Amino acid sequence: MINKKIALVTGANRGIGFETAKQLGEQNVIVVLAARKLADAEQAAAKLKLLGIDAHGIQLDITRESERLAAAQTIEDLFGKLDILINNAGVAPKDMLKKSVNIQTTPEDFDWVFKTNFFGAVHLTSALLPLLKKSDSGRIVNLSSGVGSLSIQSMADSPLAAFRTLSYNASKASLNMFTILLAEELKEFGIKVNSAHPGWVKTEMGSADAQLEIAEGAKTSVELALIDDEGPSGKFYHLGEVISW
């Protein structure tokens, strides 16, 4: 059995996912970078290897069952366990930052967003649970968003009033519910499950108008991935602060 911690980061070929893998690798964690295209994953892993990080790239479209199962098998063959799962992969409607899209949301838009942001994360976690249960300190981090907070969105003077896009926000609220229920379910195995709000980050999705640099946006995920046995579970965090569900 390998002594180092093993982490899988989905959507890791760019943005917050890549930076999360980088920061974990700098903490002596072996990182597996997953992307829809194998070439993208391997290229991202190669960049980290140049920095002295033990990194591996795998193909993983989390909406595809065959690729979820293949990823689990690859990790088992290479490492025999998984210590950290970062459910980072996510998509958003193209017009999300331009206008609110709610009652007019099409079935296709709902299907596109929920397949990745919610169902993909749930089913991948299920496929990897046997490997996470082999860890002495299993950690699952679900990349959520403040827009998925019912408390914040329902405020009369909500700071996120400009970001009310039903498909995306609802997918993150659903992911938060998954965090709460899964944390309770896995308590007996010592596996901690938390949601991370990275903030509004300067990524392809967040746009250049965002407030935070990518390195800052990855910090919450990394902190939750490396919490000790006394750390939280079933919580929603941003940079060390608890967010209301």
From TrEMBL:
Q: Which SUPFAM superfamilies match?
A: NAD(P)-binding Rossmann-fold domains
The record's family statement is: Belongs to the short-chain dehydrogenases/reductases (SDR) family.
Q: Which InterPro entries match?
A: CBR1-like, NAD(P)-bd_dom_sf, SDR_fam
* Organism (species): Dyadobacter subterraneus
Q: Give the record's keywords alphabetically.
A: NADP, Oxidoreductase
What is the official name of this protein in its record? Answer: SDR family oxidoreductase
Upper classification of the organism: Bacteria, Pseudomonadati, Bacteroidota, Cytophagia, Cytophagales
